[in-house]
Amino acid sequence: SLYTAYCRLERTVNLISVDDRPDLDDVDGLLGENNWLSHVLAHSPNFLFNYSLIAHQNYLSNPEAIRSLELLNFDLHRLGQVRQSGESTEPFFRNADFLSFDISAVRSSDSPQNLRTGPNGLYAEEACRLIRYAGMSNKLSSAGIFGWLGGASDYNPLSAGLVAQLIWHLLDGFFSRIEEGVPGNANDFTIYKVSTDTAETDIEFYKSNRSGRCWMYVPMNNLQKNRFKKHQIVPCSYEDYQQAMKGDIPETWWQTFQKMT
């Protein structure tokens, strides 16, 4: 329902999902918690430009589904990667128009009343940090928290407490938003141009003078400008800049470029 609301605006959007697996079951089945992403991808006309899956667990995921998402140049960030460096997910949240947060991504010891419970997953404090990143994004305009069995007969207040704290952290991020200005504006941003061995042109990085956060510019051909212009400036991390300085194209830059050509 969130996605179709954006479709009525007739402009491409970015979706980010925190989930233990991609919900890509058979699209011919009734719309539900296990196949909603299939319906989004199959929607016609399709206005989804990018999809990011955060904290998924490979052993719970269909390998063919993972491969399909990779071929579409979508962003996949496994639970272990989040655990190793949660800050590396921040640019993906900064790039999203709307968020789907399934608390099944949280381990059952921290949230026992999930639709799908499991021994592994995010800790509660990790989940709160991720959703705060979403709230801090100036681009994010809607969010949903799903997968909580609030009406279960064996009601447990622990999951209800987590949902309440997720909402609190989302709002805390919203009220911590920083007006960055327009990326590329010399008054608000420091501009770096990096030459690489494989890109035909320099890669431009924009570092905010207010927050220190970074973006990069991805070129496109004239035929795609009307549709994809808003996606030309992509949030990135300092690690992306370091990778470019070594002569390599950052993965996020390349994936975005592939989707626009």
Can you walk me through this structure?
- A five-stranded parallel sheet has the order 3-2-1-4-5, with helices on both faces. The chain has a four-stranded antiparallel sheet with strand order 6-7-8-9.
- The protein is built from ten helices and nine strands.
- The chain is globular.
- By secondary structure, it is α/β, with parallel strands linked by helices.
- Helix 6 packs parallel to helix 7.
Topology, please?
Layout: H1 2-7, E1 13-18, H2 36-42, E2 48-56, H3 63-71, E3 75-78, H4 79-84, H5 90-94, E4 98-102, H6 124-136, E5 142-146, H7 157-174, E6 189-194, E7 203-208, E8 214-217, H8 225-228, E9 233-236, H9 238-245, H10 251-259
Parallel strand pairs: 1-2, 1-4, 2-3, 4-5
Antiparallel strand pairs: 6-7, 7-8, 8-9
Helix pairs in contact: 6-7
